[in-house]
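Q: Got one fold?
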Amino acid sequence: MSACLYVVATPIGHLDDMTLRAVDTLKTVDLIAAEDTRHSAKLLQHYDVRTPLVSYHDHSSARDIERVMKRLRSGASVALISDAGTPLVSDPGYRLVAACQREHVPVVPIPGPSAVTSALSAAGLPSDRFYFEGFLPAKSGQRAQRLKALRFIESTLIFFESPRRLSATLDAISSEFGDREAAVCRELTKRHETILRDRLSALSKLVAGDPNQQRGEAVILVTGLDATQAEMTPETAAWLERLSSELPPRRAAALVADMTGMPARELYQWLITHRRDA
């Protein structure tokens, strides 16, 4: 292999999900850059991969990146892997890939397992469009603010969450989004895999009452906003009233529709009715 960075997907749980191409790549490259060398050593041992390992993770220094780049400049081939799944999807790799792109070092994806697509395929929620958010902020105030910014997205939303915050996050999503259809996909491809589908309120109650559902990594999927059924909130009403005091009603309704995702026609009708009743 000539100088090239291979971005290699590895199993999210079940070791047999490793692709033949991924195994062959890891055996053939000159170096493997792994998020956690001790964790990856188990996978490599399982497939009898004896390629040298170096550490590369979110906290790697510029010197660590330069060390890998130096090998690539010398003509070596390097494989980038994370602890599980596809690198760069809520995993390390962005800075290294960006460095390769800047220096015109070829970057080749070796596709494979992904918790995002695995959960989406089994959740039974709309899959034609989806929005991947990843991990929400750990602090409740910042988490609420982020959810406020996401609540008008019409695509299925996908979140990652750790076991200790799963229950609190479900409560926070329900508080901001309302009682939408959702799914919790936990420990995907592993022995204790569970896929739960229900309203957010029911899922929150189930997870809070079952310690087993608070173990292992989870993917949360939530249906997007149905603009045709969106409710008039006090905040939306305030925007309409404020804008309509300075603009024609149709223009005010159109601007609020852009901000909220609600149909402009319904906003205009609410405004006219509200003025008539005032």
